[in-house]
Design goal:
7 helices; binds zinc ion; OB fold (Dihydrolipoamide Acetyltransferase, E2P); alpha+beta; elongated; about 280 residues; 2 domains
Length: about 280
C-alpha cells in the first residue's frame, strides 16, 4: 500500500534504542502509525521538527510484510505549530484535544470531517486572543465526539425524552455519561450525577454547537463554562474507558490564566501518553 496525504502528529513514542513511532491523523485514511527507524539519532535536519502539533504532507508506504505499521517515504512541512508552542495554555488545550482524538479513533478508521476539525482547532489555538480558548476547546470536543459517533444528547432528557425548555429557566438538568447525555430532575434518581445546569444555559450550548453564535462574540455565564468542559471530559473518558492523562495539566492552565502573560515562554514541558513535547529541538 502506498498513498500521499496530509497528516497532523498526534503522538510520538520512542521505540527501541533509536527508533520512533508517530501517530498521525490524516486527511484521507484516518489515524495511522508510522515507524521511523533511527529517528532519534538521525542527523537529517529535515526531520528534526517532527513533533506534536506539526502538520505535514506525506508519502506513506507499507512496511514489507506488515499492513498496520507504515513508513514515511517522503514528506514536507505544512505547519510547525510554532504559534501553539509560545504559550502554556495553548499547549495544554492542544494536548487535551490531540489525546482525545488519539484515543477516540481507531487505526485507519476514516471520519471525513475529523481532519478538518483538528486542523481548524489547532489553527485557532495558535491565534490570539486567548479569551475563548476554554470555550473553543469545549465546543470542539463536542464536535469531535459527534464526528466519531458519540455525540452527547443535550436537547432532551435521555430517559423520558422531555425536551429542554428554555422558558423553564429554573428547570434543572444533570449530565450522566452512562446515559449518553442529560437527564431531567425526575429521571435523575436512577443516576449518580451532579453538576446541574438550567434549561436556558443548555439552549445556549445547543446554539453554540450549531454555530449559531460566533465564539468571538459570546461571553459565557460562569455556570455554563464550568459545566461544559467537565461534562465533555466525563463523556470522553467514559467512552474510551480510561483517563485522559493530559487533563492533569489543566490546573496549570487555570494558574496560567490567573497570571496571564501571553508573551512568556512556557517553562513546563507537558507529557501526553507516551510522548514528549520538545519544541523544535528533537534530534531525528
Ligand atoms: Zn426525564
Amino acid at each position: 500500500m502506498s498513498f500521499t496525504t496530509e497528516g497532523i502528529i498526534l503522538r510520538s513514542i520512542d521505540y527501541g534504542e533509536s527508533d520512533r513511532i508517530f501517530s498521525l491523523l490524516t486527511s484521507t485514511h484516518g489515524k495511522i502509525s508510522i515507524f521511523v527507524p533511527g529517528a532519534r539519532r538521525s542527523k537529517k535536519r529535515s526531520a528534526q521538527a517532527l513533533d506534536l502539533f506539526v502538520k505535514i504532507a506525506a508519502e506513506v508506504k507499507s512496511r514489507r510484510g506488515r499492513s498496520t505499521l507504515l513508513r514515511l517515504a517522503d514528506f514536507h512541512y505544512l505547519d510547525f505549530g510554532l504559534d501553539i508552542r509560545k504559550d502554556l495554555r495553548r499547549i495544554i488545550a492542544a494536548c487535551v484535544f490531540l489525546e482525545s482524538v488519539q484515543k477516540l479513533t481507531a487505526e485507519m478508521d476514516h471520519h471525513p470531517q475529523l481532519f478538518e476539525l483538528l486542523d481548524g482547532f489547532l489553527t485557532r489555538v495558535g491565534e490570539k486572543p486567548l479569551e475563548n480558548l476554554d470555550l473553543d476547546l469545549g465546543i470542539s470536543l463536542f464536535h469531535l465526539l459527534a464526528a466519531v459517533g458519540f455525540q452527547p444528547c443535550f436537547d432532551r432528557c435521555t430517559q423520558c425524552g422531555a425536551s429542554v425548555d428554555k422558558a423553564a429557566v429554573k428547570q434543572r438538568y444533570y449530565f450522566t455519561a452512562a446515559a449518553g447525555g442529560i437527564t431531567c430532575s425526575r429521571c435523575r434518581v436512577n443516576f449518580q450525577s451532579d453538576n446541574p445546569i438550567d434549561g436556558g444555559a443548555l439552549k445556549t450550548v445547543q446554539q453554540l454547537t450549531k454555530q449559531k453564535i460566533p465564539l468571538q462574540r459570546i461571553r459565557l455565564r460562569p455556570q455554563l463554562s464550568q459545566w461544559l468542559q467537565p461534562t465533555l471530559f466525563d463523556m470522553i473518558q467514559f467512552t474510551i474507558g480510561a483517563e485522559l492523562k493530559s487533563l492533569r495539566l489543566l490546573p496549570l492552565m487555570a494558574q496560567k490564566k490567573d497570571n496571564a502573560d501571553d508573551n512568556k515562554r512556557p517553562t513546563i514541558k507537558p507529557r501526553v501518553t507516551g510522548s514528549r513535547a520538545r519544541p523544535g529541538r528533537r534530534a531525528v
